[in-house]
Structure formats: C-alpha cells, structure tokens
Write a structure and sequence with these properties.
alpha/beta; four-stranded antiparallel β-sheet; 31% helix; globular; binds 2-acetamido-2-deoxy-beta-D-glucopyranose
C-alpha cells in the first residue's frame, strides 16, 4: 500500500493517468486509494477454456459477445498466468495466493488432481482463502459451481475440505469435477482404466478357480472345497464390479450439494445450467444490501461438454464451440443479475480460466478441448505457455478504465491480495504469499507488474520460469524440463490423457532451453549462446531466482500421496441407502 500511495503522489503518473482518462473519456479516478472501498466481488472461472477460444482474445469465428463486452468495458490482461496447468492445484493457488507446492496440493507420484470425491486428500484446513478473509470482514461469501479441492478427511460427513470450511458461507455445486465418465463418454478419465484392471484381475482369478476346480474334480489336487469356492466368488465379485464401474463412478462423483447436503445424486446435467443461474440471481438479490463475494466456478467447458438444446449446433466449432458459446451466454446472464439489482457500478467483475485448453481431448478426429492460439502446448503441460496463459478480464465501471489492455505478467494468485485490499483486510503475515495486488497496475499507478519472476510447476517439479526484465522490456522463459510428446513431435501427448511431469516421459534440458517471449511468443525458436549474447547472463539470473524461490519452500504434507488419493468407501458421501446413493431433491431453498 505504501507503494501505491507513493505512486499516486508522483506527478508523472498523475499526468499519465489524466492523459489516459482524457483519451478514454473516463473520470480520472485512477489515483483514488481503493483500499477498503469494499465493492462487491464477482469472480467467474471457466474450466479448461483456452485463451484463444474467445473473441476478445482474437477468435473471429466463435461468438462470445458477453465476455467481449466485459473486456471492452474493463481491462484485458494478455499475460495472465495460472500457477498450474491442471484444475486442483491451479484452483488451490488461486484461492490461497500461493504456489500449490506450498499447500501440498501437488505430488511426485503422477496424480496431479484429486481422483475421487471419497479420497482423503484436499485443501488443508490451515490454509487461508481470500473468501475467509472477506467473510471475516463482513462480506457475504458464496461459491456456485465446481470445487474439486476435496471433501472429507475421516468420515463421510466431516466435510473438512468443504467450501463452507474455507470461508464460503453459501455453496451450491459439485464438490468434485465434471468429467467424461459422468456422462459415460468414450473419452474416459478413469472408467476405462479401472475396467481394464478389474478384467485382468478377473481373468487371473477365474483361471485359478478353474484350475482348482478341475484339480479337485479329477482328484489330482487333494484340497478342500474352501479355496475352490473362495476363488470362484472373488472372480464373480470382480466381474460384477467391472460391469458396474460406470454407474458406480457416476454415483460416487457426479452429484450436487447445497451447503452440507447432497441434493442430486447422480446429478441431472440438463437442469444444472438453469439451476446455477437461478442460484446466482438469488444470491445477488439476497445480498444486495451488503458487500458480497461471489465465485461462479463454471462446469463449462470441461468434457463431456454438457450443452442445453438451445446451443447445440449453434456454433461453427462443433460441440466444443457450442459449449463455449453457452458459457458466454451464462456470463451474460450472471452480469444481468448485477444490472437488475443496480449493482454493476459497485461490483468488480473478474473472468478467467483455471488453465489452458486440453489438446489431448479428442475422439477420432474431433477436437473436444480448448484452443490456445499461438501458444505452444496445453492443459497438463507445466511449462509451455498454452497450458498456463489464460484469459484475465477485470471490470469495474467508473473506477477502472475501460478498454485497456495490460501486457505485464500477472498471475491468478494476484486476485487474493487484490480483493483482500479492496475489502480492507490484511493478507496473512505468517506465511509466504506469491500474489501481488493488481490495483497499482489496474489503476495505472504502476507501469510494471510486481512480478519479476514467475515459476511454472508441473506437479512438484519446476519445469520452467519466466523473467520479465523491466529495464530492457524483454520477457525470457527458461525451460528446465519439457514433456516428451506422443507420438514424437506431435505437440501433445495423444492417447495418454495428459503429459507426465517427471520420469521417462520428460526431457531434462541441460543447458536449459531459453526463449525470448517478447519476440517469440510461440516458443518456436530456442536461443543458444551463439544466437543470443545474453544467453549465459539470463540463465544465471533466472537460476539465481529459482534458488532463492526454493529457499522459501518448506515441506508440507502431500495431499495427493497414494493413501490420500485412493477411493475410501467410508468417505463416500451418499444420500439414500448405501450403495445405491440416489436422491433428487428439488432443493430450491434459495428463494426463502
Ligand atoms: C476459435 O475457437 C475454435 C474453438 O476452440 C477453434 O477451433 C478455432 O481455431 C479458433 N479460431 C481462432 C482464429 O483462433
Ligand atoms: C447455507 O448455510 C448458510 C449458513 O451457514 C446459510 O446462511 C445459507 O442460507 C445456506 N444456504 C442454503 C441455500 O441453505
Ligand atoms: C456507472 O458507471 C458508468 C461509467 O462511469 C456511468 O456511465 C453510469 O452512468 C453509471 N451508472 C450508474 C447507475 O451510476
Ligand atoms: C499447515 O500444517 C502443516 C502441518 O500439518 C504445516 O506443515 C504447514 O506449514 C501449515 N501451513 C500453514 C500455512 O500454517
């Protein structure tokens, strides 16, 4: 804040701000100190959306008029970086303002997101979200949509990782994540693998059972009937389980909750979109008299791309495009809720995606994942730009300038200190924070972002780092490891779901790969000491920054360790009778 005040006093920035305000025709408000101004905060996050999937980021053929309008009336960040290239860790970093490695939401074992609702891993109870701070500051806090940060620790209803234990006082949505398996898509996240394993086990046990039976009947083996009957029963159990894997997953993970109660298990996808919108408008209406924080975490545009009839076939880009256009329409409806209550000028709106589009999401020759434009790579790739560079839009009419574009490096982790500052709260002082308030940049008080370096992790492994050299304006990116594509040179890990972070599937670069993103944003031309005189100096500077960063890390419990990631039947939330777990309450308590 000291920096902000200082900058506000500087004549140079006053002049710049006044000139910009004059040119843009807005009130010169940029120098007002917004600390503690307590606007409403509306955060919109898409799931798996690529940066080039929307009009205002250069897509000419997809229709996203609502998001484009948001950008036209607000500020568009062009170098907005997610702290991880997959859901769970990126969302953990967003909510804590810290790299996910600090909260233990990473692993070295290949599991990079939570795999089951009934796993014991999840958002540690001692992490502080910005929602918690805003709640303490008197904000009404709501989360509508996807969580995917865990649920229970020890029993099926302790809800230790639940949003209501992390600063939200209202939750309606999926504690887990939408996935292909929820709709029994061919593109399966875990069903296909489980079925394969169960079938293999079945064949082994069935073979053993037959051998034992034959041996017993022909009296070649002198054994009792117990192993014969036992192995036959295990074989039958395995066969039945593999037969029911699909409905089991649908019941175990694809359900909706309102606060602490399950309302739909399994959920009815076709109703979800309208339910969410209704929830949003009633939350806004209920809380219009007080400042609120509402985090709308879309299930769009994750596979299986559940799209209502109105949008099916509407876009030029197949089912994926239809789903993007429907999400844009939802954004419009959410913004309408603000307008209806006359809250638009009192609300800071933010839009982003948790990470880049997935290149591997394809069936046959149909692409079901997002488009990352000129950026190399995609979802799951910790270092390549396509996995981590996402849209970032901020609008606050009359307070922040309209139609501006900021190219400075910013991070999703910056939202934490930004909203805490606006609410008049204090960021936690007892831990390392990685985000920086965006206000000086947004208000044009600072020309440069506070991020000199950003670190790009893949699980627990540091794959790359960027350095924005403010003096020369050059943007360097150093890659220490990159995933090996499959097939080689394909640009993605086709057939593998997602690229690995470590082991045989990655290439270690020694010396590291260096790119100058200011000239080569597509990371197409690696530099060498021969072509780039600054090569050694840049590698040394970034190496030093990495060492300093590593000194600030301390060991924490791993939330994705094997024991934390396994499905545990006793943690399975279930409404109705176990194992049927089925209910469908209308659950429309929101009007009361
Ligand atoms: C627009 O988005 C669609 C859907 O992701 C994509 O297929 C297309 O290539 C994009 N077009 C441009 C120009 O980025
Ligand atoms: C959720 O619980 C909070 C209290 O913790 C309550 O204010 C809110 O109304 C509840 N929401 C619903 C939809 O029941
Ligand atoms: C909201 O702010 C805009 C931009 O400053 C202004 O044109 C508009 O009149 C304001 N609306 C209300 C209702 O105050
Ligand atoms: C949370 O608790 C773990 C130990 O259980 C500890 O390692 C970690 O530093 C704590 N985090 C914070 C932010 O206090």
């Amino acid at each position: 804040m000291g920096r902000l005040e200082h900058a506000c006093l500087s004549f140079r920035s006053w002049l710049a701000v006044t000139a910009a305000a004059f040119l843009l025709g807005v009130r010169p408000s940029a120098c007002s100190d917004l600390t503690g101004s307590r606007p409403n905060i509306l955060l919109l996050m898409a799931d798996d959306l690529g940066i080039a999937d929307i009009g205002c980021y250069g897509n000419a053929t997809i229709r996203t008029p609502n998001i484009d309008r948001l950008a036209a009336r607000g500020i568009r960040l062009t170098q907005h970086i997610a702290a991880a290239s997959v859901c769970t860790p990126s969302r953990a970093a967003f909510l804590t303002g810290r790299y996910p490695i600090r909260s233990g939401m990473v692993s070295s074992n290949g599991y990079r997101v939570l795999q089951w609702t009934a796993a014991s891993g999840g958002f540690p109870t001692n992490e502080t979200t910005f929602a918690k701070i805003l709640q303490d500051k008197g904000y009404a806090t709501g989360l509508i949509g996807k969580w995917h940060l865990g649920l229970n620790c020890e029993s099926s209803d302790d809800h230790c990782h639940h949003p209501l234990h992390h600063g939200f006082d209202h939750f309606y949505g999926m504690p887990f994540s939408l996935m292909g398996d929820c709709a029994q898509w061919d593109m399966s996240e875990k069903r296909a693998g489980l079925e394969r394993k169960l079938n293999l086990c079945f064949h082994i046990v069935a073979f053993a059972a037959l051998t034992l039976t034959a041996g017993k009947l022909t009296r070649l083996l002198s054994i009792s009937w117990t192993p014969v009957i036992g192995s036959t029963m295990v074989a039958i159990l395995l066969l039945t389980t593999s037969y029911f894997v699909s409905p089991l997953i649908v019941h175990a993970d694809c359900f909706l909750m309102r606060n602490h109660s399950i309302t739909e298990q399994p959920m009815h996808f076709q109703r979800t979109t309208s339910r969410f919108l209704k929830e949003v408008s009633s939350f806004v209406r209920r809380n219009k008299q007080r400042p609120f924080l509402l985090f709308v975490s879309f299930l769009h545009v994750h596979t299986p791309l559940v799209t209502t009839e109105k949008f099916l076939g509407a876009s030029l880009h197949g089912l994926y495009g239809d789903n993007v256009e429907e999400m844009d329409w939802m954004v419009g409806r959410v913004l309408d809720s603000l307008d209806t209550e006359g809250l638009t000028n009192r609300t800071l709106v933010y839009f982003t995606s948790d990470h880049g589009g997935s290149l591997e999401s394809q069936l046959g020759n149909k692409q079901y994942g997002g488009w990352n434009g000129i950026y190399r790579g995609g979802k799951g790739m910790g270092g390549w730009e396509g996995g981590i560079r996402v849209p970032g839009i901020v609008r606050w009419p009359g307070v922040l300038p309209a139609g501006r574009v900021i190219q400075e490096p910013t991070s999703l982790m910056d939202v934490f200190p930004t909203v805490v500052q606006l609410a008049g709260g204090q960021v936690p002082q007892d831990r390392v924070m990685d985000g920086h308030s965006l206000l000086p940049l947004l208000q044009e008080a600072d020309e440069h972002s506070a991020h000199d370096f950003l670190f790009h992790y893949c699980g627990k492994y540091l794959h790359a780092a960027r350095w924005h050299d403010k003096h020369s304006g050059r943007l360097w990116k150093v890659h220490y490891m990159t995933p090996q594509f499959h097939p080689e040179g394909a640009g993605a890990c086709y057939g593998r779901g997602v690229c690995p972070c470590s082991g045989d599937g990655v290439t270690q670069h020694s010396p590291p790969l260096l790119f100058d993103l200011s000239k080569d944003p597509s990371e197409a031309r690696p530099l060498s000491p021969g072509t780039e005189p600054l090569y050694q100096a840049v590698i040394a500077t970034v190496g030093e920054a990495v060492r300093n960063h590593r000194k600030t890390l301390s060991p924490v419990p791993q939330q994705f360790s094997l024991s934390n990631i396994l499905w545990k039947p006793w943690l399975q939330p279930c409404c109705g009778t176990f194992p049927f777990c089925s209910c469908s309450q209308d659950g429309d308590h929101s009007e009361t």
